[in-house]
Amino acid sequence: MTEIRTPRLLLRRWTEYDLAPMAEINADPVVMEWIGDGSVLDLEQTAEAIERWEDGWDDEGFGLFAVELLGSGELAGFAGLSVPWFLPEVLPAVEIGWRLGRQFWGQGYASEAAHAALEFAHEDRALDRVISIARVGNEASENVMRKLGMELDHETTDPATGHRLSIHAIDLTQYV
Ligand SMILES: CC(C)(COP(=O)(O)OP(=O)(O)OC[C@H]1O[C@@H](n2cnc3c(N)ncnc32)[C@H](O)[C@@H]1OP(=O)(O)O)[C@@H](O)C(=O)NCCC(=O)NCCS
């Protein structure tokens, strides 16, 4: 069972107890504003997503971590690695991503979790390059990318939604 502890967070695999708090996060239109076509997800869709994320861990050996606050045990959201199948032009690639409940923004949790996930990518999974994909204008997400040391690689168009996307990348052989 893969788990990572950071000063304030536990990054871990998903359990049945994560469904309700993750569904609450996915049901918030402000959280979902810059994701896909901006639609929120209901409980059933969140259950399917968690199942996909867990299957991803089994298939790829990496995945999206459930991010838990060590202090309170609350689920803050997710951060971690996935294969961006929705954007074939960047494949083969591994993407780092993040999504936290609104009450957990502005406290450095996303960056703390993402930093640990990049270390995991390089040290545990021997990945040399990780990308991150955001809708152009998602400044909170691009801010996390910049703080991680990721650099803009190129912009492109999401084939499903027609939205402009920015692709950032980092060479993990240079990552400390
Ligand atoms: C993207 C997202 C995860 C970013 O979360 P966030 O809380 O803004 O990101 P961070 O963890 O980097 O924290 C940001 C701020 O916390 C503040 N902060 C407070 N305490 C802190 C601490 N102890 N350490 C570091 N930063 C701290 C900092 O001021 C920092 O802002 P700055 O970088 O301008 O200085 C969040 O906005 C989100 O979930 N959005 C919706 C989902 C989404 O769009 N996901 C990405 C799709 S591409």
Automatic annotation (TrEMBL):
Keywords: Transferase. InterPro entries: Acyl_CoA_acyltransferase, GNAT_dom, N-acetyltransferase. GO terms for molecular function: acyltransferase activity, transferring groups other than amino-acyl groups. Residues 9-176 form the N-acetyltransferase domain. This is RimJ/RimL family protein N-acetyltransferase. Coiled coil: none annotated. Pfam families: Acetyltransf_3 (PF13302).
